[in-house]
Design a protein that fits this description.
ASHA1/2-like_C, about 40% strand, alpha+beta, eight-stranded antiparallel sheet, about 30% helix, Alpha-D-Glucose-1,6-Bisphosphate, Chain A, domain 4, START-like_dom_sf
């Protein structure tokens, strides 16, 4: 399976702590995950070594393992399987091939703001689509992080 690396970044006028909350807290990530396509939900505690499941309303999606979780700096996830109609699959050919893919979020301070960079490996055929979706999702993350303390966010 041919693959490509999608890289997107955006400058956000908010603290790394605030951006981290937008990425990891369910009340916010359900909003920005929706910008990636069909409504998606993240089921994880965002801790290093934890399983992270990303599913849509049809209970279809990906199973990942959080390889790196450094609060306010970096999250790196490695695909380990797939979910189809709510059933976890680790052994099919597609599930095994998906293990070659990763997703990473990096937060780097720069000139009074924070640069958020996303790196995602995707199948070659989906590169343009995923790139456009991540451009939208980063704008949503920026808007949420820069907004005036939604729902008690500091």
């Amino acid at each position: 399976m041919a693959r490509k690396l999608v890289q997107k970044s955006i400058s956000i006028n908010a603290s790394a702590e605030r951006i981290w909350r937008v990425i990891t807290e369910a009340q916010y990530n359900v909003v920005w995950l929706a910008a990636l396509g069909r409504r998606k939900i993240a089921q994880t505690d965002w801790q290093e070594g934890s399983k992270a499941v990303f599913v849509d309303d049809a209970q279809t999606g990906l199973i990942t393992r959080i390889r790196v979780a450094r609060p306010f700096e970096k999250i790196r996830m490695q695909n380990v399987g797939m979910i189809t109609n709510g059933v976890e699959d680790y052994e099919s050919d597609d599930a095994k091939e998906s293990r070659e893919f990763f997703e990473q979020y990096l937060l780097t301070p720069e000139d009074g703001s924070v640069r958020m960079r996303v790196e995602v490996t995707v199948e070659d055929d989906f590169c343009n689509e995923v790139s456009a979706c991540w451009a939208n999702a980063l704008e949503v993350i920026k808007e949420l992080a820069e907004s005036q303390a939604p729902d008690g966010m500091c």
